[in-house]
Amino acid sequence: MDLNFTPEEDEFRLKVRRFLEENIPKSGLGDGREGREDKAWLGRAKEWQRKLYEAGYVAMAWPKEFGGQALEPVRQSIVNDELVRAKAPYLIGGSGLGMLGPTLISWGTEEQKKRYLPKILTAEEIWCQGYSEPGSGSDLASLRTRAEIVGDEFVVNGQKVWTSGAQYSDMMFCLVRTDPEAPKHRGISYILIDMHAPGVTVRPLVQMTGDRGFNEVFFDNVRVPRKNLVGKLNEGWIVANATLFHERNMLGSASGSEQRFNRLLALAKSIQRNGRPLTEDAVFRQRLADLEIRVEAMRLHAMRQLTDQIRGRQPGIEAMINKLVGTELNHDLATAAMEAMGDDSLLARDEQSVLDKGYWPYEWMFSLGLVIGGGTSHIQKNIIAERGLKMPKSR
Question: What residue spans define the domains of the chain?
């Protein structure tokens, strides 16, 4: 097995690296997690995505008719790795690019593809995800937001919660119950909702990180054209799972874990314990070794998955494995850093003596949320056991 990139791919990587060195915004965007709401920040964030798109580095594997370049997935993988390596700002249109876009390409009508995909690429329209509800998190199929058909429209009433980026989003891809008499996994439809429509109310939630990235979203007789239905009426659970596949892949980034490990290693070298760098402490060295093994396993799994994509193999449970292993690994990396810092881990990000710019306490809290988001670890383990290992279903 040859895990090396071709000379052409290595040359492409250097080209991307040079572009990022010259074009990454120097300040003013943060890491994209803060849930900022001001128009100036939003404008800069959209401008950064448009610059990447115009350079040819966004959605490179999408079909040409939808704004992509129909290139092999390895090219986009290289770009994604370099974005993480360069600590580039998160793309403001990430949910549209990584979740809705691929879903529409597979399940959308031609009208929907032409209407929405170009504006996803350029960040002209920002999307959020309307899945979770109060009481319907891990058991997503128990959702209660209703959509009644009145003429050529859905009339939507209900509430969503933990909706990332809703406060600055233009559109939402949303699950609604359209047949309350059907079994809970049926009778659900997947629709596209204008966030500026009358009756939509967004209330930001303050997270334990201090950010306002999550939101509650309320629908009060919100009217949605029936042409905004993706897939078949009452069969939205199938489309929803397609989106979840893409979301779980996003949450379990191997390159992100590798960069976090390198940052943890640098931190450990800078901390003294018993007069020596922490990296010379036998117990902590063993912990670092265990984490590095897990990071390397993630990298090799990502390479295998990339190979499957290149060869056109149908995906199986890889996204669930990525999500389960990646999010738990990232939280464990942050936990190791917190324990390495000792009492200093309790300092706020703006404290003068805080270590590593306050990255790790924030990362520890943020990564804990990702262990839950996109389906909890327990949910992922059940799916892997039942669909991947063909074990009996849990009762």
Answer: 7-92, 128-234, 252-388
User: Rounded to 5 degrees, what are φ and ψ at 57?
Assistant: -110, 15
Which of 82, 133, 247, 258 is flagged as catalytic? 247
Q: What is the DSSP string of 62-120?
A: S-GGGT-----HHHHHHHHHHHHHTTPPPPTTHHIIIIIHHHHHHH--HHHHHHHHHHH
What pLDDT sits at residue 126?
97
328 is catalytic: no
Could you give the percent of the chain with pLDDT greater than 90? 66
Which pLDDT score, from 0 to 100, does residue 120 have? 98
CATH 3.30.420.40 fits 252-388, yes or no: no
Average pLDDT over residues 92-99: 94
Cβ atoms of 19 and 57 within 8 Å: the answer is yes
Distance (Å, whole) CA 141 – CA 219 = 19
Q: What is the spatial distance between Cα 345 and Cα 358, in angstroms, rounded to a whole number?
A: 8
Maximum average pLDDT range among 21-30, 91-100, 205-214, 241-250: 91-100
The model carries a pTM of 0.90
Closest CA to 9 of 97, 62, 72, 63: 72
| Residue 189: half-sphere exposure toward Cβ, Cα within 13 Å | 24
